[in-house]
């Protein structure tokens, strides 16, 4: 039993060390699309935490956002994470769909205030802002 616990602790330590290494390497990426993609999931997790606590967010949007957060944290994936490039794709798609749904339910300035990353990335994800009444769309 003791050797099993030691093996589990070593495995957990390796996972945490690999996460730290990936974070360090992601910070060294040059500005651009790769850096935006590397920061996407951590930015989404921060946004989920902030929106979950915001009283201006309707309950159904909070449910969608929390489900997306649980999906990202879950070890069960449709596409295994160890596959290069496409591994995190299911997480990104689920979070993007949840944020687009929340974008229709929550005022855009609330979403932008909750987003810690580059606002252009969130704007790209959400699409064009809805025009006010009485004005035509572009």
From TrEMBL:
Pfam families: DUF1232
Segments traversing the membrane: 6-26
Domain DUF1232: 61-97
Entry GO CC: endomembrane system
InterPro entries: DUF1232 (IPR010652)
Compartmental location: Endomembrane system
Main location as per UniProt: membrane
Topology in the lipid bilayer: Multi-pass membrane protein
UniProt entry keywords in alphabetical sequence: Membrane, Transmembrane, Transmembrane helix
Superkingdom of the organism of origin: Bacteria
Protein name as it appears in the record: DUF1232 domain-containing protein
Source species taxonomy: Bacteria, Bacillati, Actinomycetota, Actinomycetes, Micromonosporales
């Amino acid at each position: 039993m003791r050797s099993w616990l030691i093996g589990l602790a070593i495995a957990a330590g390796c996972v945490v060390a690999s996460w730290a290494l990936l974070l360090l390497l992601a910070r060294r990426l040059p500005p651009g699309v790769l850096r935006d993609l590397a920061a996407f999931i951590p930015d989404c997790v921060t946004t989920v935490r902030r929106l979950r606590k915001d009283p201006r967010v309707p309950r159904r949007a909070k449910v969608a956002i929390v489900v997306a957060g649980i999906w990202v944290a879950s070890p069960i994936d449709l596409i295994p994470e160890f596959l290069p490039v496409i591994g995190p794709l299911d997480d990104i798609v689920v979070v993007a769909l949840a944020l687009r749904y929340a974008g229709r339910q929550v005022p855009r300035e609330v979403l932008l205030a909750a987003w810690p990353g580059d606002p252009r990335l969130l704007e790209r994800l959400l699409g064009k802002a809805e025009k006010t009444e009485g004005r035509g769309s572009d």
